[in-house]
C-alpha cells in the first residue's frame, strides 16, 4: 500500500508536469497546425532563466518572471520567424522549429556552458510535507502539483470566461470569420504561441530544480511531450491531460517494479523507458485519432 500511494503521487506530479508542457504544444497545434519541435527548448530556457533570476532575487520572483521572458521569446519567434515561413507550408515550419531547437541549445552552451548548473530547490520548500506510513513525501512535489493544477484552472478560465479566450476558441475553427469580425488573427496566433512557450517555461521553472538543469534536458523530455500529444489526440487539451497522467503513472510505477517480463529476461523497470512509446504505437494502430482527439495527426 505504501509503495502504491507514493508511486501514485509521484506519477500524478510528473504527469501534471507533462501536461504543463504538452498543453502549450497542443494549443499551438490546435490554432496554427504547427508541430513545434522547439517546444522542449522553451522548457529548457525556463529552467535556465529561473536559475539565473533565482541567484539574484530568489526563486519565487523567478516563478513569475522566467515564464514571462520565455513567452516573450516565443512571441518574437512567431512574429519574425514562424510567420514568415508559414506561407511555405508545414514542411518549412517543421524545419524552422527543428533548426530553432539547435540554435537555442547552442545559445545555452555559450551562456551557461555544457555542464549542469546548480539550480536548487528553495529552502522554504525543501524537506518533507507529510508521511505516508514510513515514507516522507517532499514538500516540493506537492508544490509542483499545486502549481500545475493552478495552471490547469487558469487555462480553463482563460479559454471559457474571457473575451480573448472566446476569440481564440473561435479562431481554432473559423479564422476567416473571426478576422471578418475585426479581430487581428495574426496577433492571436502570436499570443497563443507566446502563451504556449510561457507554459513550457513555467514547467522548466518548477521542473528544472526537481530533476536537473543541463543542456540535454530538452532532448530528454522532448520525445515524451510528443508521445503525450499523440496518445491524447492531436489538438485535444482534455486528451493531453488524460495522456499526461496516464504516462506519468505508467513511468513512475514501472520504474519501481522488478517483475520479470516472460521469456525476455528483463524486468519491468528495465523496460520502463520504452513503455510510453509502445503505448503510442498501440494507440496509433487501434485509434489513430488518440484517446480524445477529433482530428488525425
Please describe the structure with a list of short key phrases separated by commas or semicolons.
single chain; 297 residues; two-stranded antiparallel sheet; 12 helices; 3% strand
**Separation, N- and C-terminal Cα atoms:** 40 Å
> Going across the major beta sheet, what is the strand order?
1-2
Biggest β-sheet description: 2 strands, antiparallel
Low-confidence stretches: none
Rg from C-alpha positions? 19 Å
What letter string, H or E per element, gives the SSE order? HHHHEEHHHHHHHH
Give the tally of β-strands: 2
State the helix count. 12
In terms of structural class, how would the helical and strand content be classed?
A: mainly alpha
- Classify the beta-strand content into a percent band: under 5%
User: Helical percent range?
Assistant: over 70%
* Chain-averaged pLDDT: 88
Amino acid at each position: 500500500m505504501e509503495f502504491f500511494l507514493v508511486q501514485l503521487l509521484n506519477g500524478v506530479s510528473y504527469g501534471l508536469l507533462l501536461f504543463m508542457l504538452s498543453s502549450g504544444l497542443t494549443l499551438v497545434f490546435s490554432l496554427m497546425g504547427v508541430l513545434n519541435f522547439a517546444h522542449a527548448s522553451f522548457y529548457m530556457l525556463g529552467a535556465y532563466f529561473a536559475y539565473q533570476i533565482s541567484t539574484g532575487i530568489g526563486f519565487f520572483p523567478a516563478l513569475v518572471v522566467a515564464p514571462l521572458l520565455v513567452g516573450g521569446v516565443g512571441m518574437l519567434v512567431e512574429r519574425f520567424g514562424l510567420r514568415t515561413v508559414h506561407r511555405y507550408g508545414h514542411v518549412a515550419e517543421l524545419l524552422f522549429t527543428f533548426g530553432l531547437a539547435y540554435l537555442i541549445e547552442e545559445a545555452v552552451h555559450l551562456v551557461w556552458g555544457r555542464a549542469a548548473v546548480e539550480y536548487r530547490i528553495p529552502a522554504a520548500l525543501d524537506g518533507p510535507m507529510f508521511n505516508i506510513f514510513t515514507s516522507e513525501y517532499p514538500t516540493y512535489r506537492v508544490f509542483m502539483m499545486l502549481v500545475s493544477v493552478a495552471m490547469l484552472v487558469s487555462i480553463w478560465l482563460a479559454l471559457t470566461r474571457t473575451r480573448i479566450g472566446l476569440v481564440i476558441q473561435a479562431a481554432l475553427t473559423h479564422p476567416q470569420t473571426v478576422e471578418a469580425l475585426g479581430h487581428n488573427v495574426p496577433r492571436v496566433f502570436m499570443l497563443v504561441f507566446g502563451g504556449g512557450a510561457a507554459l513550457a517555461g513555467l514547467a522548466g521553472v518548477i521542473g528544472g530544480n526537481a530533476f536537473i538543469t543541463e543542456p540535454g534536458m530538452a532532448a530528454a523530455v522532448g520525445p515524451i511531450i510528443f508521445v503525450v500529444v499523440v496518445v491524447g489526440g492531436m489538438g485535444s487539451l482534455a486528451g493531453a491531460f488524460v495522456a499526461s497522467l496516464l504516462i506519468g503513472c505508467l513511468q513512475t510505477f514501472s520504474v519501481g517494479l522488478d517483475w520479470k517480463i516472460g521469456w525476455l529476461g528483463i524486468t519491468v523497470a528495465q523496460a520502463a523507458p520504452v513503455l510510453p512509446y509502445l503505448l503510442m504505437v498501440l494507440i496509433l494502430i487501434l485509434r489513430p485519432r488518440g484517446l480524445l482527439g477529433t482530428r488525425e495527426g
